[in-house]
Structure formats: structure tokens, C-alpha cells
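User: Predict the structure for this protein chain, please.
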Amino acid sequence: MIWEELDAHLDKVPGIVSAYVGRPGARPTWTRRADATHYAASTMKLAVLVALFRAAEAGRLDLDAAVPVRNSFDSALSGAPRFANDRDYDNDEAVWDRVGGEASLRWLAERMIVRSSNLATNICIGEVGLPAVAQAWALAGARHSVTGRGIEDFAARDSGIDNLVTAADLAALLGELALGATRPGPLASPAGCAAMLDVLVAQEHREDLAAGLPDGTRIAHKNGWVRGVRHGAGVVFPDDAPPYTIVVCTTTDLADGGADGEVEDDACRLIAHVSEQVWAARHDLAG
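Assistant: Here is the predicted structure, written as C-alpha cells:
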């Protein structure tokens, strides 16, 4: 069976590889160390996106309102000095070009996903608040994932405040988004969930999960990377089968692309291989 073959293949990979595959709302077809925690890298931006849309639907934020684009943020560690992002560590010059000006929260949320902008992410967190991000995880049914700080908040990181995810929790959040676009759910209205999926479909970093799919296949996804970490989490929408959720989290030396997420490395190729194998089995997933 394909799942035994994948497990045997991943058994040979150094480090920790977690996976979750299944239809949204159904029991998983295949899991592997799905509750193991990994450093979140940019996959934490999924929960930030949900928190923003929830706040907008509750009337607490206006996604089309302009907010200041500033590179200065409160640390999650009480009493620590404010921190800033490193432009050279980011992936989106478009946001940096607006520093000193303004941008809408909707545009910043899109840049946070489609280009994985760290600066946009921290601005969004500053507007919505970390408690709202924690609530998004909780409403999705996540059990172990935590968004405790902004990106490059090193004082908080060094004190033990961190951002963690599991494959199961990422699958839970994405599965609720997919289901929520078809009927009322805990995360947002059907229109809100559909809009978030559209943002995730527009994701431009396609070196891992998307690379294992046929060209043109619709996938709503977010990945994350730092040296030693590469994750891919998404919902695939085949034309000839029901949607399925696929998450692969890797903490391994194969992820040597560093801060530049557009550098394809062995971790990208590993995730693409898993994605390709799951696609081949898309008709046989548990419903």
C-alpha cells in the first residue's frame, strides 16, 4: 500500500517528519507523527489570517481601512524593548516600499500569505492581537499549536515564548476553512472562508506541495521555512475527486534553503514527493 511505502521512505529521512492526509471533516486516511510539535515558521500565518477575518466579521476591524506601515513592534515579552524586522530576511519588497506610508489590512493580509511577508505579518498581529490568533487555533480544534510572538521577536524567543505547530492542527484549521466555505462553521462565514481560501490559492511559493501536483491543480496552501525546517500545509481541490487536506512538516537537515524560501532543497523535493503520491491515491482517501 502507498501509505506503508511512504512510511518506509520517510523512516530513512533524518530528523522529524510529520504528515496528515484526509478529507476535511472525515477521519484521516494517513498520519505520521501528526501530533509532534515543530517550529511553526510561516505556517503560523494561517491562524493570523483567520483571526483577521473573524475580527472583520465581528466589526472589530475593517480590512479595507488603511493602517500605518511601520517597522516597529511590541515584544510579546513584558518589559522587553520594541523590535523590528530585517528587510534582508523578508520575501516581499512591495510591503517594505510602503514603510512610512499606509496600506489596507486586506492587502497586508494577502502579502502575508502570497509572498509570506514577515513585515506584513507583524503589522497584522499588531492590529488583531495575539489572543485573537490563539482563539483561531482553538476554534479550529488545534490542540498543540501556539502563536506566542511575532516574527523576529528575539527577546520573546530567547525567553521561551515561541511559535509551534503540528501537522494535525494545521490540517484541522485548513479542513475547517474548506468545510466553512460550504456551510456555517466555527471560523468565519461561508463567504469569509471562501475568501481566505482564495488568498491561499494565490500563494506564490510553490516549491513543495504544489510542485507534486499536476499543473493547474487548485490548492489552497501555506508553507514555512527556516534553515532546518520546511513545512507545507494545504487543501487540494481535484476536478475528479473530493477535496483533501495534506500537511507535511519537516524538521531536518534536508531543509538547507535557509531564509530564502524560493531555493528548492531536498526538503522541498521530499514534500513534493509525498504530495505526488497522495495525489495518485486521491480517489481512495477515506470519506
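The chain is about 35% helix and 15% strand.
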